[in-house]
Amino acid sequence: MESEFNERMSNSSDKELFDILNNKESYQETAFNSAINELNKRGFSEETAPALKEYEENQRNEKLELERHQSLPELYSQKSIVIFSAFFTAICGAIMMTYNFRKLGNKGKSNSVLVFGLVYALSLIFLISLTDVNMVRLILQIVALIGGFVLVLKFGKFYPADLEHRNKPIWKILIYSLIISLSLIAISTYIYMKMSN
Known about the structure:
mainly alpha; 2 strands; elongated; transmembrane helix
């Protein structure tokens, strides 16, 4: 690849090489370096020096920014907590938020949010099972669906004000949530069929 670039640059005009130099963000690093080397061979080292210095400085800054980003804690976003709570009850959202607080070293809040999420979701499930009034059931189901918003409003303020983080991928918790949900549905269906026989 490098030899191909070197050959191509050797056949390019000075203007084409300086175009690469002045539009380095549009070219691969290998192409940029080949253009610099070719210009230096042609006696343009004074002209290439500032561009090369700027390029190396940008590379260093990008590396530092990447290292800084990699050092940030990996947390579930508030948006994913709200969505998972709507689909898998506030228990799931509480587990995600518990993970966040533990990652931030706030064990007290991690326990509080877990207890709150469990009580919130189980209370609503219990109340829904008690009533036969459709309007009441609908209201309770809506309250259950917005459990994630309740969690974020109640506990989100305890995140550090200047918090920077990376978004944690949701695939693992999605798989766990689906397995648990499908298992509960299968168990409920089995019990219902046994009771109806």
